Amino acid sequence: MKYGIAVFPSKKLQDMANSYRKRYDTKYSLVPPHLTLKDPFEMEENQIKEFSKEVRKVAKKASPFTLEVYKFSSFYPVTNTIYMKVRENESLLALHNELNSGNLKKETEHPFVPHITIGQEMNYDELSDVFGRLKLETINYEETVDRFSLLYQLENGTWTVYETFLLGNDEK
């Protein structure tokens, strides 16, 4: 089964992202707007409880952090993806690193770039046009993140929360 770990931002930020996603993101209906902390990975279902225990340890040690979205960017030419760029900070990077090391380490395809995808699998002309307009806009949005979620993918491709972890204060 496929799993991943992500932060779901506030409704306000999700609404902002969805205003673009419903037009430009082919995966709009499969998962809400999110910041990926651990790329999708395969794991047997019988391993999830032990994995979840390790993730809980990381969450307890981590601190809430500021999620600051400050501009639009693109992964072109690697992929035709447009995203809202999230400013890196020490707490966010430490959480990502902890969730991707030790017993939780899995191979990753790309380096960590904190972002919220708003468009993907676009043809070049559309990407060029949309990104050209968005580059001229600025975003100044900030919120505090105090939790993240372990997700699993259903057979139809949608992602569902398996468990949510509070940062620094997980009571489970």
UniProtKB/TrEMBL annotation:
Keyword terms of this UniProt record: Hydrolase, Ligase
Motif HXTX 2 location, chain numbering: 115-118
One Pfam family this sequence matches: 2_5_RNA_ligase2
Active-site residues, record numbering mapped to chain: 34 (proton donor), 115 (proton acceptor)
EC category: hydrolase
HAMAP family: 2H_phosphoesterase_YjcG
PANTHER family cross-referenced by the UniProt entry: PHOSPHOESTERASE SAOUHSC_00951-RELATED (PTHR40037:SF1), PHOSPHOESTERASE YJCG-RELATED (PTHR40037)
Family, per entry: Belongs to the 2H phosphoesterase superfamily. YjcG family.
Protein name: Putative phosphoesterase SAMN05518684_1225
Species assigned in the record: Salipaludibacillus aurantiacus
